[in-house]
């Protein structure tokens, strides 16, 4: 459309009538349409990275593509498998070069609603910032783009698939396939990793039959003053911590030492896993970690920041004991006596029947629709995890 050859009123018409175009030619990407249950608001989205369907689609392709690691060995999905609620079933994952990473792969269930996005770094509060960690970290290496970024981008630019996906996602960009574009697309896709169809969700929306009698009894225990589980695992995603008055805890106060370690009974944690202390250098932060979501917790083991508890039964036993005792090995010590341990981890007693009820409630947080949602799966080749 050669708008410049038309009269002035026609040119103005181009700008107003065709508001969905950049200039007079490039189609504007369609906004992403949230599919959320009644009463659930969309997550916050940065103004400089608005959600579009094209960016989400591009982000899904990148999330599952091993070409995003220079040696072609890993993708985001390597550590975040859909059938495991975007975790990997390992105590500690490995990066693209085989190095063991320092933290258990955290679930991405409803990650768009999380206030912080790492086990022990309260400064990572947006998906755009957090995506840079696996892309660029080099100690240890995760995907390993740092220093190899141009090689990675060049590989993607050669592919007709990505030429089309990047052009549709960023139609006005002079250069396609840049770090900023990769980050924005991955963050956009991750905002769509949404889970709201568990039996417990349906129960809260009025389906009285969604939970078994055993799960309902376990729910009552979970929210009781006796166990205090909901003081650390409250809110819609069961990952928000509150004080005794029910006020939401923010910042450093929302990270907890749960008595997992007390190496040598000297108030320390294993090297590389000391929580907020590694950022603050304040000994009061040793062992303080983020409270993870309990959505889909049944399929996200092993548990804790280092994957050192294998089963949900082990997790319940840990909290019932008020912490963990390691009687031998390099990390031996009585975690119950750690000076930084949260007073909420005070221990409790459960009968065998009550423990099974609590487990039944935790299992009711599993959203099988989410674990099998094709819109979140691998778009390259459904017969293989990654291309």
**Helical proportion?**
25-40%
CATH architecture of the largest domain: Orthogonal Bundle
Summarize the biggest pleated sheet.
Answer: 2 strands, antiparallel
Number of domains: 2
The gyration radius over C-alpha positions equals 23 Å
Structure description:
With 387 residues, the chain is mainly alpha-helical. It folds into 2 domains: 16-194, Cytochrome Bc1 Complex, Chain D, domain 2, CATH 1.10.760.10; 201-368, Cytochrome Bc1 Complex, Chain D, domain 2, CATH 1.10.760.10. Helix content is 30%, strand content 3%. It contains 14 helices and 6 strands. The strands form 3 sheets. A two-stranded antiparallel ribbon has the order 1-2. The longest helix is centred in the middle third of the chain and has 12 residues, at 179-190. The two termini are 40 Å apart. The relative contact order is 0.14.
Which characteristics define this entry?
mainly alpha; disordered C terminus; Cytochrome Bc1 Complex, Chain D, domain 2; two-stranded antiparallel sheet; 387 residues; 14 helices; 2 domains; disordered N terminus
Outline of the structure:
It contains 14 helices and 6 strands. It is mainly α.
Topology diagram in text:
Layout: H1 8-17, E1 21-22, E2 26-27, H2 53-63, H3 76-79, H4 127-136, H5 149-157, H6 160-169, H7 179-190, H8 199-204, H9 213-222, H10 229-232, E3 255-256, H11 277-280, E4 289-290, H12 312-320, E5 325-326, E6 333-334, H13 352-363, H14 368-371
Antiparallel strand pairs: 1-2, 3-4, 5-6
Helix pairs in contact: 2-6, 2-7, 4-7, 9-13
């Amino acid at each position: 459309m050669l708008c410049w050859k038309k009269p002035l009123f026609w040119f103005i018409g181009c700008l107003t009538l065709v508001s969905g175009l950049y200039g007079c030619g490039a189609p504007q990407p369609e906004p992403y349409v949230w599919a959320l249950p009644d009463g659930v608001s969309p997550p916050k989205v940065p103004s400089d990275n608005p959600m579009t369907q094209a960016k989400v689609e591009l982000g899904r392709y990148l999330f599952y593509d091993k070409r995003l690691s220079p040696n072609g060995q890993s993708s985001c999905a390597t550590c975040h498998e859909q059938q495991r609620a975007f975790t990997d079933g390992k105590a500690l994952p490995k990066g693209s070069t085989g190095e063991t990473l320092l933290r258990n792969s955290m679930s991405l269930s409803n990650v768009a609603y999380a206030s912080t996005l790492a086990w022990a770094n309260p400064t990572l509060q947006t998906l755009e910032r957090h995506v840079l960690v696996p892309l660029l970290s080099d100690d240890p290496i995760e995907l390993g783009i740092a220093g190899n970024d141009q090689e990675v981008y060049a590989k993607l630019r050669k592919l007709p698939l990505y030429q089309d996906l990047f052009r549709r996602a960023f139609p006005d960009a002079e250069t396609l396939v840049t770090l900023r574009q990769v980050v924005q697309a991955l963050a956009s896709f991750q905002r769509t990793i949404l889970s709201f169809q568990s039996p417990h969700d349906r129960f809260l929306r009025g389906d009285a039959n969604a939970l078994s009698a055993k799960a309902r009894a376990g729910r009552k225990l979970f929210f009781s003053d006796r166990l205090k589980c909901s003081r650390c695992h409250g809110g819609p995603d069961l990952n928000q911590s509150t004080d005794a008055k029910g006020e939401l805890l923010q910042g450093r106060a929302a990270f907890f030492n749960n008595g997992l370690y007390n190496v040598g009974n000297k108030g320390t944690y294993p090297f590389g896993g000391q929580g907020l202390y590694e950022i603050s250098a304040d000994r009061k932060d040793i062992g303080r970690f983020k409270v993870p979501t309990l959505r889909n917790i049944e399929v996200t083991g092993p548990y804790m920041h280092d994957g050192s508890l294998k089963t949900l039964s082990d997790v319940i036993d840990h909290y019932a004991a008020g912490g963990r005792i390691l009687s031998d090995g390099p990390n031996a010590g009585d975690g119950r006596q750690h000076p930084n341990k949260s007073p909420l981890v005070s221990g409790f007693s459960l009968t065998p029947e009550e423990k099974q009820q609590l487990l039944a409630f935790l299992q009711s947080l599993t959203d099988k629709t989410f674990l099998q949602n094709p819109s979140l799966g691998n778009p390259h080749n459904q017969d293989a995890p990654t291309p």
